[in-house]
Amino acid sequence: MEGVVNIVVVSGLLIGLVYGAVVLLSGFCLLSGLRGWWADGDSRLIRTYALALGIAIAAAQLLAAGDVIDLGKTIYLQPSFSAPLMFLGGLLFGYGMVLSNGCGSRALVLLGRGNLRSFVVVIVLGIAAQMTLKGLIAPGRIAVLQATQGAPAMISLPALLSTFGLSETFARMLAASAISGALIIFAFAHAPFARAWGQIAAGIAVGLLVTAGWFATGYLGADEFNPAAVTSLTFIAPIADGVQYVMLSTGLTLNFGIALVAGVFAGSLLTALITRRFQWEGFSSPRHMLRSIGGAALMGAGGAMAYGCSIGQGLTGLSTLSLASFVAVAGILLGTAAGLRGVLRVQPLVPAQESRPRA
């Protein structure tokens, strides 16, 4: 049992190391992708994200179809969920992501590069998430959850397709093929992206890292006496647990998520030092700091309500084809759109070079 736990923790650390390096070198980020696409007409980063999602969906569903992992054990495919709460959480997370100029995983990566603004974002996000999951805000979240949750007959897209008389395996493969195929076609339909080998490599790498997380926790961590939680790349609860572990390690146990967070920071730091990208950065003004703190708080609370972030739901959750994940991601996209466009638009304060894609 101890060996299984150690394998899962080491896997989380290694996956995090690679993810931190890939994201630092490529600029992989949903917010940066949407901002570049909508504001500048540069869709390379959003197509990188689409490629990663397409690969994650295809690979995760192949693992599930082959009975290598049981996606039914994940938080994304629980028999009941609150669509209003998840959508609201997604809205808060998306808008907070714009205020903070990046999601939780991006903050970890920028922190490894010497960005002290991201240190504040990570700490506040972790505290707000813990307050929402287990602290002062938790009773309110639980009350809304209990009042609005439902138990639909179908909780995933393959299950929905199976109502038309399709077998479970065929429905799974049909849904995965259609969505992943559309995403990959969208990615390569843009000539500048098709020539951007660095972005292509980043999309493939991130998609495979999501798959590696599923394999590590769902297969390597499978133990009937002490099973690991079946999960993959996600950052809201892991950052909250990581902050708590750093403060109160006695009595707490290392898990995949905490190791993943540590690995992302370490991978980014090592890559920044090797490539000479490391540079200390801070806030430009008190207003800038206040905006980042507010955004981090919204991301922590919203991500806890939505069961994930732009990575945890946007990649990992959607790779399960969970209907709840589609609801959460719809909220994230709408919240991000509100922050980038329209009357609620957040005026940028951080230099744009942090978000530029690298070929």
Question: How would you sum up this structure, described in words?
Answer:
The protein is an all-alpha fold. It has one domain. It is 69% helix and 0% strand. It contains 16 helices and no strands. The chain is globular and about 60 Å long. The N and C termini lie far apart (44 Å).
Descriptive terms for the model:
359 residues, single chain, 16 helices, mainly alpha
Radius of gyration from CA coordinates: 19 Å
Structural class: mainly alpha
Q: Strand count, sense and closure of the main sheet?
A: none
How many β-strand runs? 0
- Number of H/I helices: 16
What overall form do the CA principal axes indicate? globular
Distance between the termini: 44 Å
Mean pLDDT: 93
- Classify the beta-strand content into a percent band: under 5%
